[in-house]
Amino acid sequence: MDNLIILGNGFDIDLGLKTTFKAFRESFEFRSIADIPLIKEIRDNQWNDIEGKLREELIEYSKNPNDEWAESINHAWLMITRHWGIYLPQLTDLDKIEVNKNSCAYNLLIADQKQDSTWYTFNYTNPWYLCQLPEGTKPVFIHNETVPLDWAKHHGLCYYIPMSLIFGVDSKMPSCITKNEQLSHIIKVNNPNFNTKNKENLQKDLKTAQNVVFFGQSFGITDSDYFKPYLNSVINGETDNKNMFIVTYNNSSLNGIINNMSEYGINFVDIKTSKVNIKSPL
Q: H/E element holding 253?
């Protein structure tokens, strides 16, 4: 495989979509959730990294686990997942959105039309559909795809709420969480809707692609299950990669990536000194 392209939320943002957790937190959909303790804390403290806050809550729970707290966390996770599933389709109404055709994201879609690249996305939206471009090989949706609102309208549905969207944390959780029936499914790879085969294929393709492009991917700890094994293989010289491209908004965004990687034991300097040619803002 020559080109492998991995999309993160920064790609959708570059296209002009309001898919950040900050936009979701400020939306009517999030405001309409009842004041469950974790929801109230996110709201009162204006937490934008909702998955990160959920992870912190689970870590705190592990220090003094009890059934009532577990039930409360699970209730909050269910409500977030449900309302996230309502919020996202509203961003896919072709009559209301305006794609930024001057963006790097849009121009990458155009430039890649004649290529045979493999695409994986950690987003929930289909950029070819939203940009009304011919779609070749459908991207692999690691966290599953939301249903475009236009599709729901066409089928006479006011709302189509996809409950299969993967929202949650990484597997590096204490055993009191991984073995808890109320909490274990909050771990992304334990979600009953999670496609393990997609993860396996992604990790295989990451190692064998000649060129790997990360566009708008934050490398946050909640997605470390996907990236830590690969980044270690880059450092240890165990991939076929010749080039890695990290596309970010600016140097500050790259520094955020570096900090995120360090949370799960990856030193960016080690990546930069590997045999793979790393192209990034720094």
A: helix 251-263
